[in-house]
Write a structure and sequence with these properties.
The complex is a heterodimer. Chain A is mainly alpha-helical. Chain A has helices at about 1-10, 20-35, 40-45, 50-65, 65-80, 85-95, 100-115, 120-130, 135-150, 155-175. Chain A is elongated, with a radius of gyration of 22 Å. By secondary structure, chain B is mainly alpha-helical. In chain B, helix 5 (about 95-115) crosses helix 7. The longest helix of chain B has about 60 residues, at about 230-289. The radius of gyration of chain B is 40 Å and the shape is flat. Chain B starts with 6 loop residues before the first helix and ends with a helix. The chains are: A mainly alpha, B mainly alpha.
Chain lengths: ~190, ~290
C-alpha cells in the first residue's frame, strides 16, 4: 500500500527514525498547523504554483458566471490553505453572487482578518451592509477602502466612493419615509 | 492617419445609411452587404473613412471611455503576490502523511463503532496499531496545545487592551476624561488577563474529564472474564485518582482567579467611591466659602 502511494506521488519516502526524532518532528508540525503557521497544502507539499493555477481556473469560472463550479474549486483551496486571504475574498464574492449575504460577510471578514489591505473585501462587504441598511458598518467599510487608495486609481476604492453617494441617498430616502422596522444584517 | 471625409461624400453616405435595407443590414452586423449596396461613385475606402470619423466623433463625446470602478461582488484575478511562499521544510514525508491518515481513519472507525455504524474493517485492522500511538501522541500534546493557545490568546488580548489603556491614561493626564476611567480600564486589563487564564483552566479541566471518561470506557469494553481485567481495573483506579486530584487543583486555581477578579473589582469600586467622596467634599467646602 505504501509502495503504491510512493509510485503515485513519485516522491522519495523519507523515514525519520529513531522514533523520538520522528515524534518530535510530527509534534512540531502538528503544533505549527494548530497555531496557523503552516497550511494543509504545505504539509502535503502542494506548491504555491499549483494553488495559483487552481485559483486561476476557479477565477475564470467565477468571471463567466459559473459560480457553483467556482465555489467547489475555492472550497477545496480554502481547505488546502485556509490562511490565504484571496481565497476567502473570492469565496465571499461567490456567496454574494449566489445571494448568501451572511456567508459572504463571514468570508470577507475572514479575508480581512488575514489581510487588512484587501480593498475588494471591504467594498463588497460594505455593499452587503448597505443593501441591508446597516449604514454605519457600510460607511466604515467604504471609508477603509477609500483610505487604502487616496490616488483614486484602484477600481474598488472608486466603487466605494460611488457607493458612499448611494449610501447618502439611501439614508435620505429612508429619512423621508415613515418609520418602519427593517431587517439588519450584522 | 485617416484624412477627413469630403462633405459631399459624407452627405451621400449618410443618406445611403438612412435607407431601411441598409439599417437592417447594419443591424444584422453584415458589413459586406452594406458595402455591396453602396451607390456609384462611393468606394469602400470612402465608407471606411466615414465610419472611422464617426467613431472618432463618438469617442470624443465620451468623457471617460475606460473603466473607473468595479462592479458588484467583483474580485481581482489571482496574482502570485496573493500566494505567500511556502515553508518547504514543513511538508510531511509520504510515510508520515500516510501514517497520519491511517490514524485519522482508525479514529473515525472507532467513533463509528461507538455509534453502531459498521466500520471499514480492513483499514481498521491495518491501522489498529497506529491508533494507540495516535492516542498517546494526543495525550502528550493536548496540554502543550492548550498552553500555546492560552499564550497566543493572552498576548493578542493584552496587546489590544494595553494600547487602549495607554490612550485612556494619556487622556486622563491631559484632563479629557475623569480618573475613574483609568481605574475602570485597569480593572478591565485584570479581568481580561484572568479571563484568558479561566478559559485555559476550563479547557484543561474539560480534557482531564474527557481522559477519565475514555479510561472508564476502555474498562467497560473489557469483559470481566478477561485475565487482564483485574490489572486494568487497578490501572483505571489509579488514573482516576490522579485525574480527580488534577481536577481538584484546577478547581482551586479557578477559584483563585475568580477571587482575584472579585477583589480587583471591589477595590476599584472602593477607589471610585473614594474619589467621588473627596470630590463632593471639595465642592461642599468651596461652596461654603
Amino acid at each position: 500500500m505504501t509502495e503504491d502511494f510512493q509510485e503515485q506521488k513519485g516522491k522519495k519516502t523519507q523515514i525519520i527514525d529513531p522514533t523520538p526524532a520522528r515524534r518530535k518532528r510530527l509534534t512540531e508540525l502538528f503544533m505549527a498547523f494548530l497555531e496557523d503557521k503552516v497550511s494543509m497544502a504545505e504539509l502535503k507539499g502542494i506548491s504555491r504554483e499549483d494553488l495559483f493555477k487552481l485559483a486561476e481556473a476557479g477565477y475564470v469560472k467565477f468571471k463567466h458566471g459559473r459560480y457553483e463550479e467556482a465555489e467547489k474549486i475555492y472550497q477545496a483551496l480554502i481547505l488546502l490553505d485556509h490562511r490565504n486571504a484571496y481565497f476567502h475574498s473570492v469565496m465571499g464574492a461567490i456567496h454574494q453572487k449566489l445571494n448568501r449575504p451572511i456567508e459572504a460577510i463571514m468570508e470577507y471578514s475572514q479575508a480581512l482578518r488575514i489581510n487588512k489591505q484587501d480593498c475588494s473585501a471591504y467594498v463588497n462587504r460594505g455593499e452587503i451592509y448597505l443593501r441591508h441598511k446597516n449604514y454605519k458598518k457600510a460607511a466604515q467599510d467604504f471609508r477603509n477602502a477609500i483610505i487604502l487608495d487616496t490616488a483614486g486609481k484602484n477600481l474598488w476604492s472608486n466603487r466605494a466612493r460611488s457607493l458612499v453617494i448611494a449610501l447618502k441617498r439611501s439614508m435620505e430616502a429612508d429619512a423621508s419615509l415613515p418609520r418602519r422596522r427593517t431587517v439588519v444584517v450584522r | 492617419m485617416v484624412e477627413p471625409v469630403r462633405p459631399k461624400v459624407e452627405k451621400e453616405i449618410q443618406s445611403d445609411l438612412a435607407r431601411l435595407e441598409m439599417i437592417e443590414a447594419l443591424r444584422q452586423g453584415n458589413i459586406y452587404e452594406v458595402m455591396k449596396k453602396l451607390p456609384a461613385g462611393l468606394t469602400t475606402r470612402d465608407f471606411e473613412d466615414y465610419m472611422s470619423q464617426q467613431w472618432r466623433n463618438f469617442k470624443s463625446q465620451i468623457i471617460q471611455d475606460y473603466k473607473i470602478y468595479e462592479g458588484e461582488a467583483a474580485v481581482a484575478e489571482p496574482s502570485m503576490r496573493d500566494f505567500p511562499v511556502h515553508d518547504e521544510g514543513a511538508s510531511w514525508t509520504t510515510e508520515e502523511g500516510h501514517e497520519f491518515l491511517k490514524g485519522m481513519i482508525t479514529s473515525l472507525n472507532k467513533a463509528a463503532e461507538g455509534e453502531g455504524i459498521a466500520p471499514a474493517t480492513d483499514i481498521g485492522t491495518i491501522a489498529e496499531g497506529t491508533l494507540d500511538e495516535w492516542e498517546n501522541f494526543m495525550n502528550n500534546v493536548w496540554g502543550q496545545i492548550f498552553d500555546a493557545q492560552m499564550v497566543a490568546d493572552y498576548q493578542k488580548r493584552m496587546g489590544e487592551i494595553q494600547k487602549e489603556v495607554q490612550r485612556i491614561i494619556a487622556m486622563a493626564k491631559s484632563g479629557q476624561v475623569d480618573p475613574e476611567y483609568v481605574l475602570i480600564a485597569l480593572a478591565k486589563v485584570n479581568v481580561t488577563k484572568n479571563g484568558c487564564l479561566m478559559t485555559w483552566l476550563g479547557k484543561k479541566a474539560f480534557m482531564t474529564n474527557e481522559t477519565m471518561n475514555r479510561i472508564a470506557n476502555d474498562l467497560r469494553m473489557t469483559p470481566a472474564s478477561d485475565p487482564s481485567y483485574f490489572g486494568k481495573l487497578q490501572d483505571v483506579q489509579s488514573k482516576t485518582r490522579d485525574g480527580a486530584f488534577q481536577l481538584q487543583l484546577l478547581v482551586t486555581d479557578m477559584q483563585k482567579v475568580m477571587q482575584d477578579v472579585a477583589g480587583v473589582l471591589e477595590q476599584v469600586h472602593g477607589f471610585i467611591g473614594e474619589i467621588n467622596r473627596t470630590r463632593r467634599e471639595i465642592i461642599t467646602k468651596v461652596a461654603a466659602h
